[in-house]
Amino acid sequence: MLDSLNPFEDPFLIRKLNPLLIESLHSYWIALKEAKVSAEEKLQVEDALYNLVGFTFLHLFQPLYLQHPPKIPGSVFLLSAVHSDGIGDYVTLFKCAKILKEHHPALEVYLAYTHKQSLPSIDPYPYHIKKENIYAFQETEEACSVILEPILEGKKNFLCEAQLDQLLLEHNRLLAEYETLQETHPQAAVAIQELSNEVQRSIQSYYYYRQKKAEAEKLYLLMKKSLAIVHIALALNTFDNPGLASKSLYFAEAGNFQGIANYLQRHWFSIGLNAFEEGVFLNNHHTTSHWSCTALCQYLWQVDQPHAEHLKNYLMDYAIEVAYLPHSSAHREIFIEMMCRRHLHDSRHLTIILPLQKKEQFLHFSDSWMLAYGFSKILVVDFVPSVRETVLNQINLAPRKILRLVCVLPLPASDFTKLINLSGEIVGCTGDGSLSDCIQSGKIPFYEVRRHKTGTLEAFIRLAQKLMLPEVLKYCELLKQFADWPVPSFLEKFEALLQDSSFRMQWDKLVEFIKRYYCLEDSYLALINRFLWMSLSKEVKEKEESLIHSYFEGAISAESAYLSLKEILKSQRTKIVES
């Protein structure tokens, strides 16, 4: 095929696919065509080109698999290794479960995840997940706490029973020694008792982990009978176990695209905004009327569940701004300063919703600062263990305008989304989850750029360059260079951008492009549907392979392949329903 026309110039492909993807595929084609290779290497180049065509058609066929899901009962597992900074990934796991369950009501959806840090409690009901279908495995510094992944890898006897036997013997010895010393050497007996208690705690841990091991083994048996095992963000290893590998898919966190071969053969996809990635969450699934954090509702609105009238009345007296910026105090400080500047001539009080933090982490708000922004009082509000207001500073100033810094984030996704919808046009966000929430709510992100998240901002920069959006490009570059600017200069440039009407038009154009070509919900469901079809229907599997091969050989057009697959999916779906 290297001697034929460019396979990625088919008009139907160009019309249907992301233009950035087409551009990247075209570049690959040129590189392969111009490569000086031997006769043996030419076969490898042909294979690489065939993989490119297969990759292209998987994207072309995604809308068909999305529109024609197989209606079959069974179970699907969603798995994740929630890392120490992964609360967003944890929420994403539940979000993915809800999306899948709404698309496939007949499926039994299970969640299983490992984690090291404490995680906020999530009510499974809004996500359509049964509580008994959620399996959590917390890992500590103890080696025996690492339970789930070794079992999924097929390892045996990793929980050392011999060590438990030694602990039991040691505990009995210490108890006997304590009894002996209790009357004659009471101080030594107390020390022995402390050692005994420590050994007892280790024994209890072993019993607990033995119970968790049994739970993981039960989970493993359920997974072997499941239709699919879908990994989100960070994977647990089911790919090297023959009993689970054929059922496994992986949606890696942004920037972790593992190459076209792994995409095709191992079903390794990537969340993100690069040309070969599957997109970000864009559909708002969490705007239910119910609020989970009733303590916050009581503080803001004096009711557990505010109605529209409560919110309307509140916003007459208070402005709300939201900043989920948990990692960078510099970003929080600039966001607070920026919001105070934006509300300088607003007579309403100002409430800024922030992450949990210690009072001493706040800047000292001087009398002159308060006078400049028209605040008579600044409060820090936290909810640990119950609602508490702390006055940071107070001056005698009329009118008595109050700045409230309400430290309550992270919140359940539904509450967070509703707060964003009540806030102004700029929302502070971090990571992929809150960034997606911000975009889908029509807001402009003030993005907390961290070292391992620079790829996300780089993707925005590439999109702005390709779409020729100079003001958006300036905005992205400004966020990227955040640390290089003094606060006044940064604020001046950032606010000047936001006040430029062309920026908002260009931003809307960028968001429209992302929504069209990078909607993760659609890709996620389409790829799972395809995976189910491949395991369910030999006809669909063979038809897809045949269509890709025929296109590669130049026998059919992309449009013919698309329409042919559409017909086979419709006919096979009818057969499944009838059976």
Structure description:
The chain is α/β, with parallel strands linked by helices and 579 residues long. The protein folds into 3 domains: 7-69 and 520-578, no CATH class; 74-253, no CATH class; 294-517, Rossmann fold (3-Layer(aba) Sandwich). The chain has 22 helices and 13 strands. A 6-stranded parallel beta sheet has the order 3-2-1-4-5-6, with helices on both faces. Strands 7-8-11-9-10 form a 5-stranded mixed beta sheet, with helices on both faces. The chain is globular and about 85 Å long. The model has no long low-confidence stretch (mean pLDDT 89).
Task: Considering the chains and any ligands shown, give keywords for the structure.
5-stranded mixed β-sheet, 579 residues, Rossmann fold, 22 helices, single chain, globular, alpha/beta
